[in-house]
Amino acid sequence: MDRAPGLSVRLKLTASYAGFLMFAGTLLLAAVWVFLLRYVPEAPAVQPSIRHNELPPLGSPSRDDLLRAFAPRAAEVFVFLLIFGLLGGWLLAGRMLAPLIRITDATRMATTGSLSHRIRLPGRQDEFRELSDAFDSMLEQLESHVAEQRRFAANASHELRTPLAISRTMLDVARTDPARGRDELIERLHAANTRAIDLTEALLLLSRGDRGNFTRESVDLSLIAEEAAETLLPLAEQRRITLDVTGAAARTSGSAELLSRMVTNLVQNAIVHNLPADGTVTVHTEAHGDTSVLWVENTGRRLPPELVPTLTEPFQRGTERARTDEHAGVGLGLAIVHSIVRAHHGTLDLVPSPDGGLLVTVRLPGTP
Q: What is d(CA 10, CA 7) in angstroms, rounded to the nearest whole number?
């Protein structure tokens, strides 16, 4: 924003310090006048001589005499206060504003894209240190967010390029080999196109969850869990997975569409990653005071503890599975869940079970 040039804060503070000293000096002189000089007579008082041969006594100074003697000295003091106030105020203002200058320099560096710089202002806690610490914290979060976005963009580009490259390869093969079967080509092109569409829709849904601009309404997580289980029951039966839904009503406020996608992703993720087959997926809902809780637990292989924190990152897959699986996913299931939970001001906890599998707990603000 273009602004008209003005006085610096340091100059304003210097003028304020000097003005305050001048005002204090004026008050002091006024106090001398009111409480001292006003009681001095205007004419000199002379005591009459008692003895004939004694010299006449000197008269006491009058108010005019005191003013003539005091005024030049008062003017000198005022000049000294003015110079002292300007010089001392300039030095003091510079010392006081030094932390603010460091914060300003760090802000300019951040605007150029350098987010790794930190102020780390030394000294004891005060307003400037609080501002510096808050700014350092903001820079740290921004740096982490930008790094996450760059990593996400790189992964998204890679994931989108894969089905497109497959499609181009198959088209090139079909062009050079007209005798190749059209049915096989169409089927493979359909699978690659479906994967690209699924990935695009997942990216759009992830972006929508991050923005958080949706209409809120009262939603019962238990009903959504039952609907998701009913929808995914054929997949569970195909994999010989026992799907169990229990619990009571757990109402929250949010987007019914996004919350439904959240629960569906959790249940589908629990079924797909339940290896080997013949496992169990349990979905449970309950309300604890002003918190609605949903947890999804599955059996399966043991997960390394260091792998669990990365499962909510985009394009992370917890277990290996065939890429030809129609439910292989695009690696955004838990990332979308995390985004939706965060947009609804909730928390997401992932805990690996000692016997294998994963326990996912979602806590959202409850409503009556």
A: 8
pLDDT at 53: 56
Spans of the chain, pLDDT less than 70: 1-3, 37-61, 63, 151-152, 154-156, 158-159, 162, 178-181, 202, 205-213, 277, 315-331
**Per-residue tokens: 63:** 């108010």
Sign of CA dihedral 56, 60, 64, 68: positive
Q: What is the pLDDT of residue 39?
A: 67
* Measured distance CA(236)–CA(224) in Å, rounded: 17
Q: What is the pLDDT of residue 320?
A: 44
pLDDT of residue 327: 45
Cα dihedral 11, 17, 21, 23 sign: positive
At residue 38, the pLDDT reads: 67
What tokens were used for 114? 């350098």
For residue 359, the cross-strand partners are: 297, 351
Around Cβ 361, how many Cβ atoms within 10 Å?
15
Q: C-alpha 12: how far from its chain's center?
A: 34
Q: Where are the beta strands (DSSP E) in 197-352?
A: 217-220, 242-247, 251-254, 280-288, 291-298, 347-352
- Residue type at 278 in one-letter notation: D
Q: Kindly report the length of the chain.
A: 368
For residues 39 and 145, give the distance between their C-alpha atoms in angstroms, rounded to a whole number. Answer: 75
Q: Across the strands, what pairs with 251?
A: 220
Location of structure tokens 């003015």:
82
pLDDT of residue 102: 86
Q: How far is it, in rounded angstroms, from Cα 87 to Cα 18?
A: 9
Residue 113 is predicted with a pLDDT of 79
125-153 CB burial, b ≥16 within 10 A, e <16 = eeebeeebeebbeebeeebeeeeeeeebe
Output the DSSP codes for 98-136.
HHHHHHHHHHHHHHTT---------SS-SHHHHHHHHHH
Structure tokens given for 185: 């080509």
